[in-house]
Structure formats: structure tokens, C-alpha cells
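User: I've been trying to design a sequence by hand for this structure and keep getting stuck. Would you show me what you'd pick, starting by listing the structure so we're on the same page?

Assistant: Good idea, let's start from the same input. This is the structure you sent:
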């Protein structure tokens, strides 16, 4: 998580920054102008870059002015003199502004967060545009006012400013953001002692290598440098580079250390030391950033694992971790209650053993779809093969688990008891399948049966469709009311049932219109059945009011299923035959053309 940008309101804050900048610049000028031109070591701009990268832009003018004045004074007093003061101040400010602007443009946070992206952008901005451009201006000034030529001046500027910026900017940014003080407050005492001990060991090893060792032993510094980066993180890596810069830089300038075994001027040896320092920075800081990222990821995974375990172990649903090849790797405790199996007995066994053989193919397809489409959730219903009391339907929701390369390593599935839901669904289907007034099949239930019968006929069976309309039913409603009309409808179905066989179905399509599906019969026998039904109905009378009775007759249209015509075509053919029956005097049967 990135730190918020600073917005200092005190007028003393930029003045303090200017004083520190003046001290850093003066020390560099006094100690490293070996050839009378530019300083070979320069860390002052690291302070300005850290200030700009960690503060809001509203603060920039004040701190730029303070550091610019400090640069002018130090250059006039200890550098190339008053003539170089203003141009060198502008060049120093330009370098810092280029780095800060590019970092703000290409990273959403600042250098103090220690991320790999922040470090890479900072290094690229510092090494390529900022110091190539600023170095040209500084080399021109130095070549004009001193004896050092343009090429040497540019190299002195570039090496000193790049290496000074790399070494000091990260730790200064962390200091300005309060990360050091927060680390001191929040880190356990044991960890603080470990960090201080590692830094002390590193300081002793550095002092030995640069002041006491008779042979060049710079490699000895790598192990403690990596150890600090690993154990303490970005803050420790930055601190260790600073320790190396102070001890190694002082030794190199004073003529000690392994780099003084190299032939060349003191300026060249100083530049060589800064190259070593830069490589130490490039080893420790990115390593620390990577380790910090992995540490944060590990903490997030631990929190996620804790939440997952809490949910899995206290959920009524069964939670399963299943490998790519379908082997159960984890089963939540609810498996014992939900499916009657101890979780431990399921681990290492194929997940398909939980599924009824008739449903296994669909569950396996859902498992494969989850692996092939990692971002999608797959849902499948199945009947269990291992059942606890009352468990006859389950729902499985499956999603892939991915590794750090984004490749599936298995799935996590939740299995939920769907028995009650299925029972309610079946009850609703039964209610929806029956006409509540007459007890006949509802329209949609009858049409479903008709569709199934069409498929059976296509495979060689025989069946006929009879479409029926009660004659003059409207007059019954008009004369006796809808109550009597309802009585006629229910009585009509009751009188038809005794004449139907076990495989036949009667459905109410709407109003006084009914349909009968006669299975296992051809058109001739179906016509005989229809005539028998017509006589059965007309032979009985239905009481209406007082002594009034009603004689019920019907007209019918009959069509034979051929296995080729669809449901709509059959209904239309039967309806046309029914229409002819009505216009033939009613109370009769007509066959479809």
C-alpha cells in the first residue's frame, strides 16, 4: 500500500531542506573536486529528488527555491565560483525535476513504496534523460570555466550524479515518508535487534574490506548485503547501501581499500567505487522489493486461507478441493453430516464416487469446463451415489484454482443439498401439470406428452390425437351461470375417464376445449373409441338447478400421428376436422384430411 504524498505547511520545512542540501553539496565539493572541475561524488540532488517524489506539487516551488539557493551558495563558495552558481543551480534543479516528473507520470505511487516498478522507472529516469541532458549543460559550464575538457566533465557529472542518486534517494524518500520512524515504532524488539546486528556486522565487514584487508575482497560484502535485504527488506537494503557508501567512499577518497590497488587517478578510483556501489544497489534494492512483494503476497494468502478455512469448516455446504485429474484433496467437516462420509475417508479418492453413475458424465464435463475456463463458475445438479437421510439431489458449484503462472491446478467445489428444492420443484410441476378444476392434464403438460408421443411414433409406435369441444357450452354459462358451467366441465372429464385406457391421456387446452391422446392405436380403432366416448357422455345427464338437467354432447376432430408432422401441424389438422364436425350439426366426429 503506497504512502500518501506529503504537503508540509511550515515555512521552516523548505528552509531545513535547503540547509541540508547546502551541507551535502559543500561536503561533496570540498572532498571530491579532484581535478578542479565538477565533483566526482554528488548526493545533494538525491535530497531534492526525494522531496519532489514524496510531496504534493503545491510544495515543489518552495523546496526548489530553497535547494536552488543552497546550490548557488555552495557552488560560489566551494565550487567553480560565482559565475557558475546560477547555471549549476538551474541544472541541478532540472535534473531533479525530470526524474520526479517522469516518476509521477509512469508510476501511480512514489519511490518510497519500494516496489519493483517504482525502482525501475526511477533508475531509467535518472540514468537516461535526466543526467544525459543535465550532464551536457554541466559539462559545458565546467569546460568553459575550468581546465577540465567537455568529455571528462560530462563523465564526472554523469557518474557522480547517477550513482549518488541511486545510493541516497531511496533511503531519503523513506525517511521523508516516515517509514523509518514507523518501522522503529511498529517492529518488534527482536526484529529491531536482528536488523541492527546485521547492519553492524555489515559495517564491520565493510570496514575490514576497505581498511584492513591486504587483498581485494569485495565479494565478502555480498553475503551480508543479501542477508539484510532478505531479513529487513527495502529499508535494510537502502541502509546497507548507505553504510557501504559512507565507509567505502571515505576509505577510497583517503587512499585505502581494494580500489586503490587499481592504477589511475583518485578521481578514476572514486568513479570505480561508485560503479561498485551502483551494482550493490541494483543487487539489494530490487531483491528487497521482490521479497517485500512476496512477503505481502504470503500475508494475503495466509489471510485468505484463514477466511477459506473458517468458511469451509463452518459451512453447511460440503467444500471439496479436487485435483486436475479428479482426485479429492480436501473435504470439509460437513461431509460427514451432508453425505454420510468422514472427510478423511474421501481424500485421495476420485470425486466421481459421490455421483450417481447416470449423472457422472455431466459432472465430469463441468469439471473440465472449469479447468478450461478458469474465470467462469460451473454449476451442475446431480443425484448422489452416497446418500444420507433424505438426500436425493445435490448442486455442485465449481471454479478453477490457479498457480502463480495462471495455470489451473485443480478446482474448489461446493456441494449443496438440493433435495428440498427439488421436492418443491416437483410439487409445483405436479400442480402445474394438472387442471385444478377438472383434474385433466394442463395445457402445457398435455402438449409435453404429445411431443414425447410424436418421438415414439417416429420410432415405429402408433397414436392418434382427438380434439374435443363441448357443444353449446356458452349457452350453459349464460343460462345457469359459471358455477354450473364448472360442474359440467368437471363432470364431462369424469364421464370420459372410464372409456380411456391406461396409456391414454386427457388434457384441457382451454375453456371447453379438450384433447385426448390415444396411444398404441390406429385411426380406425381411435374412431371407434371416440364413438364409444361420445355415447357414454350423451347417455348421462348433469343436474343443474332444481329439477333442471343438462345433456352434454361434444364434437371431435381426429388425426393420426405420422412421426413426421410437428405438434403445431397435428393440432391444426385436428382443429380443422373439429371445425367440420361443428358445421356438420355437432355431436359427431370428423377425421383430418
Amino acid at each position: 500500500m503506497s504512502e500518501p504524498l506529503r504537503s508540509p505547511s511550515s515555512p521552516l520545512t523548505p528552509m531545513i531542506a535547503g540547509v541540508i542540501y547546502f551541507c551535502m553539496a559543500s561536503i561533496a565539493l570540498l572532498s571530491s573536486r579532484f581535478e578542479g572541475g565538477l565533483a566526482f561524488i554528488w548526493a545533494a540532488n538525491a535530497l531534492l529528488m526525494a522531496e519532489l517524489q514524496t510531496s504534493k506539487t503545491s510544495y515543489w516551488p518552495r523546496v526548489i527555491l530553497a535547494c536552488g539557493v543552497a546550490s548557488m551558495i555552495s557552488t560560489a563558495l566551494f565550487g567553480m565560483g560565482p559565475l557558475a552558481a546560477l547555471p549549476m543551480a538551474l541544472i541541478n534543479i532540472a535534473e531533479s525535476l525530470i526524474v520526479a516528473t517522469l516518476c509521477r507520470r509512469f508510476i501511480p505511487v512514489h519511490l518510497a513504496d519500494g516496489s519493483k516498478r517504482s525502482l525501475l522507472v526511477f533508475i531509467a529516469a535518472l540514468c537516461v534523460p535526466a543526467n544525459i541532458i543535465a550532464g551536457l549543460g554541466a559539462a559545458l559550464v565546467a569546460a568553459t570555466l575550468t581546465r577540465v575538457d567537455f568529455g571528462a566533465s560530462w563523465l564526472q557529472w554523469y557518474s557522480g550524479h547517477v550513482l549518488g542518486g541511486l545510493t541516497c534517494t531511496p533511503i531519503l524518500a523513506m525517511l521523508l515518508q516516515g517509514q523509518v520512524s514507523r518501522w522503529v515504532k511498529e517492529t518488534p524488539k527482536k526484529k529491531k535487534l536482528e536488523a541492527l546486528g546485521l547492519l553492524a556486522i555489515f559495517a564491520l565487514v565493510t570496514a575490514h574490506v576497505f581498511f584492513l584487508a591486504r587483498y581485494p575482497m569485495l565479494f565478502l560484502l555480498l553475503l551480508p548485503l543479501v542477508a539484510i535485504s532478505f531479513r529487513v527488506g527495502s529499508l535494510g537494503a537502502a541502509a546497507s547501501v548507505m553504510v557501504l557508501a559512507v565507509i567505502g567512499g571515505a576509505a577510497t577518497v583517503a587512499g585505502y581499500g581494494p580500489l586503490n590497488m587499481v592504477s589511475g587517478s583518485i578521481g578514476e578510483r572514486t568513479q570505480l567505487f561508485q560503479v561498485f556501489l551502483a551494482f550493490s544497489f541494483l543487487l539489494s534494492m530490487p531483491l528487497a522489493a521482490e521479497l517485500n512483494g512476496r512477503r505481502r503476497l504470503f500475508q494475503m494468502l495466509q489471510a485468505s486461507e484463514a477466511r477459506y478455512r473458517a468458511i469451509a469448516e463452518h459451512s453447511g455446504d460440503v467444500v471439496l478441493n479436487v485435483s486436475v485429474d479428479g482426485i479429492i484433496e480436501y473435504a470439509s467437516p460437513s461431509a460427514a453430516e451432508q453425505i454420510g462420509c468422514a472427510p478423511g475417508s474421501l481424500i485421495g479418492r476420485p470425486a466421481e464416487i459421490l455421483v450417481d453413475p447416470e449423472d457422472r458424465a455431466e459432472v465430469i464435463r463441468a469439471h473440465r469446463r472449469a479447468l478450461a475456463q478458469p474465470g467462469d463458475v460451473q454449476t451442475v445438479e446431480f443425484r448422489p451415489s452416497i446418500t444420507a437421510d433424505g438426500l436425493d439431489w445435490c448442486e455442485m458449484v465449481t471454479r478453477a484454482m490457479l498457480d502463480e503462472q495462471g495455470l489451473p491446478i485443480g478446482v474448489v467445489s461446493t456441494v449443496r443439498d438440493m433435495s428440498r428444492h427439488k421436492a418443491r420443484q416437483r410439487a409445483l410441476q405436479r400442480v402445474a401439470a394438472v387442471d385444478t378444476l377438472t383434474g385433466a392434464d394442463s395445457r402445457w403438460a398435455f402438449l409435453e406428452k404429445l411431443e414425447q408421443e410424436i418421438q415414439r411414433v417416429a420410432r415405429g409406435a402408433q397414436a392418434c390425437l382427438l380434439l374435443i369441444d363441448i357443444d353449446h357450452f356458452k349457452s350453459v354459462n349464460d343460462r345457469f351461470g359459471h358455477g354450473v358451467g364448472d360442474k359440467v366441465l368437471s363432470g364431462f372429464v369424469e364421464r370420459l375417464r372410464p372409456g380411456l385406457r391406461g396409456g391414454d391421456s386427457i388434457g384441457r387446452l382451454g375453456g371447453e376445449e379438450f384433447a385426448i391422446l390415444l396411444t398404441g392405436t390406429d385411426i380406425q380403432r381411435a374412431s371407434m373409441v371416440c364413438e364409444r366416448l361420445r355415447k357414454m357422455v350423451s347417455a348421462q345427464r348433469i343436474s343443474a338447478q332444481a329439477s333442471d338437467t343438462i345433456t352434454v354432447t361434444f364434437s371431435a376432430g381426429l388425426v393420426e400421428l405420422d412421426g413426421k408432422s410437428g405438434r403445431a401441424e397435428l393440432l391444426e389438422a385436428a382443429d380443422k376436422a373439429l371445425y367440420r364436425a361443428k358445421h356438420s350439426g355437432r355431436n359427431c366426429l370428423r377425421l383430418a384430411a
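That's my pick for every position. To get oriented when you compare it with your attempt: The CA atoms of residues 400 and 583 lie 66 Å apart. The longest helix spans residues 266-314.
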